[in-house]
């Protein structure tokens, strides 16, 4: 019988329950997918702990890869047996099989395995919009990327290297910094033992960087602002340490007429044409070998609670997948 993770209330990892579920046949515009791998992302924690609200009882998970087992009415671009991947709502990827809107799906090239797809769809598409839409990189820039040893960070380090961009990477341990360096980072800062702002100014000859990509949130927000050059842009795309506290516009003007963004991946992928373009860029850079999904951990789907504990304790590196 199909299995899935369900939650009845917001809370810690213990609220996730591994239960039997009924899946049924796909309706109009839907397909039924048997999952081969499920992606774990920090946004899953937000939906579990109530940072992002959802109706209860609820589901969890935004990313997976698998094979189509049934197709509903009106689905013309996909067929039974297609290898596919997806990221997006509705929640529910933490499952052995499920119904998914066909509008979320992309076909997997033969060169990309299911584990790789599940490890990189959300994170890889995130890097695509960060580098190509939020603050388009042309090559030659020096950028600051926080939490560079995480799943998004390791993809970003590789992609930046392919673009000819110099990455200043931050992380919490030397092992994580070494991992970021192995994936393309040039300058390394341990944010627990070094002054990030001073090091960035030292590296950049006092100028600061034109852009900071910050998925950490509360702990690094003001630090990120202080690392920017005049007219610089802070792209705040996550809340791993908590939601960014209130700030005033004077915090931006006093530091040099700065810009701040808070983008969300699913706004960029809402239109089919945009999703196809982003996925094509991701598959191209992965297919070329310039970017590889670094899978640091694998857990059984039934052990999703432990995976969340390790993620929140910052014990993980790279991408994490759940195996149905």
From TrEMBL:
<dbReference type="Pfam" id="PF08240">
    <property type="entry name" value="ADH_N"/>
</dbReference>
<dbReference type="InterPro" id="IPR011032">
    <property type="entry name" value="GroES-like_sf"/>
</dbReference>
<dbReference type="Pfam" id="PF00107">
    <property type="entry name" value="ADH_zinc_N"/>
</dbReference>
<dbReference type="InterPro" id="IPR047618">
    <property type="entry name" value="QOR-like"/>
</dbReference>
<dbReference type="InterPro" id="IPR013149">
    <property type="entry name" value="ADH-like_C"/>
</dbReference>
<dbReference type="GO" id="GO:0070402">
    <property type="term" value="F:NADPH binding"/>
</dbReference>
<keyword id="KW-0560">Oxidoreductase</keyword>
<protein>
    <recommendedName>
        <fullName>NADPH:quinone reductase</fullName>
        <ecNumber>1.6.5.5</ecNumber>
    </recommendedName>
</protein>
<dbReference type="GO" id="GO:0035925">
    <property type="term" value="F:mRNA 3'-UTR AU-rich region binding"/>
</dbReference>
<dbReference type="GO" id="GO:0008270">
    <property type="term" value="F:zinc ion binding"/>
</dbReference>
<dbReference type="GO" id="GO:0003960">
    <property type="term" value="F:quinone reductase (NADPH) activity"/>
</dbReference>
<dbReference type="InterPro" id="IPR013154">
    <property type="entry name" value="ADH-like_N"/>
</dbReference>
<dbReference type="InterPro" id="IPR020843">
    <property type="entry name" value="ER"/>
</dbReference>
<dbReference type="InterPro" id="IPR002364">
    <property type="entry name" value="Quin_OxRdtase/zeta-crystal_CS"/>
</dbReference>
<keyword id="KW-0521">NADP</keyword>
<dbReference type="InterPro" id="IPR036291">
    <property type="entry name" value="NAD(P)-bd_dom_sf"/>
</dbReference>
<feature type="domain" description="Enoyl reductase (ER)">
    <location>
        <begin position="11"/>
        <end position="322"/>
    </location>
</feature>
<comment type="similarity">
    <text>Belongs to the zinc-containing alcohol dehydrogenase family. Quinone oxidoreductase subfamily.</text>
</comment>
<dbReference type="GO" id="GO:0005829">
    <property type="term" value="C:cytosol"/>
</dbReference>
